[in-house]
Amino acid sequence: MRAIVTVIAKDRVGIIAEVCTMLVAHQVNILDLNQTILQEFFTMTMLVDTSMSTTPFAELVQTLSDAGKRAGLEIRMQREDIFNAMHRI
Amino acid sequence: MINTSEVLETLQMIDQQHLDVRTITMGISLLDCCDADAKRACEKIYDKITFSARDLVRTGEAIEAEFGIPIVNKRIAVTPIALVAGASDTEDYVPFAKALDRARAETGVNFVGGFSALVHKGMTPADRRLIASIPEALAETELVCSSVNIGSTKAGINMDAVALMGRIIKDTAARTADRGGFGCAKLVVFCNAVEDNPFMAGAFHGVGEPDRVINVGVSGPGVVHYELKRVKGEPFDVVAETIKKTAFRVTRMGQLVAQEASRRLGVPFGIVDLSLAPTPAVGDSVARILEEMGLETCGTHGTTAALALLNDAVKKGGVMASSSVGGLSGAFIPVSEDEGMIAAAQSGVLTLDKLEAMTCVCSVGLDMIAIPGDTTAETISAIIADEAAIGMINNKTTAARLIPAPGKTVGDTVEFGGLLGSAPVMPVHPESSEAFIARGGRIPAPMHSLKN
C-alpha cells in the first residue's frame, strides 16, 4: 500500500535520519522524498510503500506518530488515495 | 507524486478548517422484521440491526486512521417504523423506539433514525399510533431520531397531520423539559422527504432502497470560508468558481470514504450527500461564508442571494466529484449548530422570517430553532405549514425542527451540547393562526405549468 508520510518539526540536525530509521524498523520502503524549510519549519513529505511491512497499517500510523512525539516531530502517515482523490482528476 | 503544497493544503483543511466526513450512515431495511407479535418484531429489529451494522463503527474508525480524515459520526437509518410496526397487534410503539436505542448502544453508533411515518396524503392507523408515540419515545430513548413527512409536491400538504405535529412537538418539549426540550431536536417534520438522507434527525431508509446501503455526508463550511477569504472583493463569478472547486475536492474525499466503507462492509454504496453541514465550532459556519461575501451580519439584505449562490455552487462542484449524489445535498442552516447563525440570531438581525426566506434557496429548512416555550401548538403548526408550502411549490425538500423551549423566552439560550450546539430563543409572531390550523383537510398539490 502506498502512503504519504508528512513530517513537520522545528528544524534541527538529524531529522531525516531519525525518520528513515523508524521506517526501516517497520520495513517501510521510501519511493520519493521532498524536503524544504517552510517558515522556519522543517517540512518533509515522503511517498512510501508499506507492502513489505508486517505491522498493520493503522498500527503503523500510530507507532510513527508516537515515536515522532517522543522525538519532537509531528509525523503523519496517510494512504496516498486521499490526496489523489482531492488533487487529481 | 503529489507535491508538498498539495499535501500541506489537505492537512491544513483537516487541522484548521474542520474538514471532515460528517457521517457514514448505513441504511437498513426492516421490512422483513414485521411480526404480529410486537415483542417478537422488536427482537427481530434488534437482531437485524446489530447483525447488519456490527462492523460499522470499527470500519469507520479504521478508515479514519488510515486516511487521516476525521469521520465524526457513524449512524444507522431504518425503514420508517410505522411501516414495520403496523403489522403488530399493539397500540404502543414506544418499545420499537427502545429496541432501536438498544441496537444503537450495542453497535456503538451515534444516532439511529427512522422512528418515522410518511403521511403526506393520509394516515394509516399505524401512522397515527407512531405519531402518538413520538413524545414518549423521544423522552425515553437517548439517540433515536424521528421524522414525519406531512407533504409532497405530488400529494399536497396533509393539514390534519400538520395540526397534529404542532401538538406532538409541544408534548415532546414538555416531556423533555428538564433538558431544554431536547426531544424536539430529534424530531423533524418534512415536506418531500428523501429516502437516502444520511443526516440526522431526518434520516430514514426508504422503501425503494436495497436491503442495506451506505450513504455518506460530507462537511466543509470552514474550507469554503477559507477559500473565499482569498478572493476578497472579486466578482461573484469568481466566488462561484471558487466554491465549486472547493466543493469538488471535499466531495471527492467523501466519495473515496464512501466507496472504501462500502467495499469493506460488503454493503452497496448509495450516495454522497453534498451538504455543507456546519458545527458550533468557530471556523465551521455557513453564516460566516455568507458574511465573507460582503454582508455585515447574516440575515441582513442580500443574505438570500448569497445563500442561493453558495447552495448552487456547492452542488455544481460536488456533482462531478461523485458517482452518485443524493440525500439533501445543499447548504444547511441549522441555527443552534452554526456559530455564525447563533451570533446573528442573538444580535436580532437573523429572524425567523428571514430564515424562512433563506430556506427557499437552500437545503433544508427551519432547522434547530428554539422558540419561546409558550408558543401555541397552532403557531408551530402554522410555521410547519409555511415551510412545507415552500417545499411543495418549489419541488424541494423542506423541513422544520423547532424547539419550543419550556420555560424559556426571547433572550434566553438553550444548551444542547455536542454537534447540536446552543440555540438562542427566537421570537415568533404573537398573532393567532388557530382558525387556520383548525380547518384541517389537505392543501391540494400544485400545478406544474404557468410557473410564476
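Residues 224 and 243 of chain B are 6 Å apart (CA to CA).
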